[in-house]
Write a sequence for this structure.
């Protein structure tokens, strides 16, 4: 489904060069939930931005469904709109828009007619349990509710891949658990592939696979194997 090979990324600030990714490769299957772990500064956000087609300034290749992704900005934007969904640590909802309008927004980008948009938006808002809040603005909701809106917004177009950057970092334990279960259950239902940067063990424990970044290099381990060996 998603493959990236030999991704190299450096940031240059004046004379200072930081090698954020030093040639990382992995292949992620359809429907797989993959946790991307590693200490702060290890390159998680950099890799998510590249896999999310938000950054075209890197060496290496991204493959989606067997096709190499072009670095043409228009092509990247089109693929992003059609096939990718994003969930962020700080929710990134549009403050002046209602829950309904925030969730509808990605569908407006796809030129879908109003009726079809409404069916999809109402359906996913029901699924994340926010039916009674559909007309509210984000500042009228709790953090957990806002993240559920963000999940609905990411999933409403049934994207092939969902990219999530520390989605539970700002949530208390019980809200985080709810958000994790929601992502996993809805994702499974819709057949989405998830790539989730996280430090949260509740999240990594529920993922199929963990990719570990350290100092710009990637290694993989299977959390179940590790638990078994430890136990
Ligand atoms: P993580 O998400 O794991 O915390 P990042 O991908 O944000 O890691 O950062 C990887 C490395 O690249 C760090 O050393 C960070 O300081 C550097 N870096 C990230 N973004 C920039 C940028 N815009 N300009 C310069 N250096 C950056
Ligand atoms: P941070 O990791 O510092 O909290 P964010 O998670 O907010 O940053 O954003 C990560 C990246 O995604 C940034 O490069 C940002 O420009 C981009 N981004 C943020 N919001 C959106 C959005 N709604 N749509 C597309 N790209 C976004």
């Amino acid at each position: 489904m998603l493959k990236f090979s030999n991704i190299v990324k450096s940031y240059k600030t004046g004379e200072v060069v930081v090698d954020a990714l030093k040639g990382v490769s992995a292949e992620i299957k359809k429907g797989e939930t993959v946790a991307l772990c590693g200490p702060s500064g290890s390159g998680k956000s950099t890799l998510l931005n590249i896999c999310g087609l938000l950054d075209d300034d890197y060496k290496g290749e991204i493959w989606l469904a067997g096709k190499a992704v072009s670095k043409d900005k228009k092509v990247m934007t089109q693929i992003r709109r059609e096939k990718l969904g994003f969930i962020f640590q700080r929710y990134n909802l549009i403050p002046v828009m209602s829950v309904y309008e925030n969730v509808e927004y990605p569908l407006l980008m796809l030129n879908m007619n109003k009726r079809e948009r409404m069916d999809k938006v109402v359906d996913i808002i029901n699924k994340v349990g926010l039916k009674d809040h559909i007309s509210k603005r984000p500042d009228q909701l709790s953090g957990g509710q806002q993240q559920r809106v963000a999940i609905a917004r990411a999933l409403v177009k049934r994207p092939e891949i969902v990219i999530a950057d520390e989605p539970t970092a700002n949530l208390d334990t019980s809200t985080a658990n709810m958000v994790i279960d929601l992502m996993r259950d809805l994702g499974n239902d819709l057949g989405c592939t998830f790539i989730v940067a996280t430090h949260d063990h509740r999240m990594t424990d529920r993922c199929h696979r963990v990719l570990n970044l350290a100092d710009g290099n990637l290694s993989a381990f299977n959390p179940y194997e590790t638990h078994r060996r430890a136990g």
About this structure: Residues 12 and 18 are 6 Å apart (CA to CA). The chain has eight helices and ten strands. The chain has one domain: 2-230.
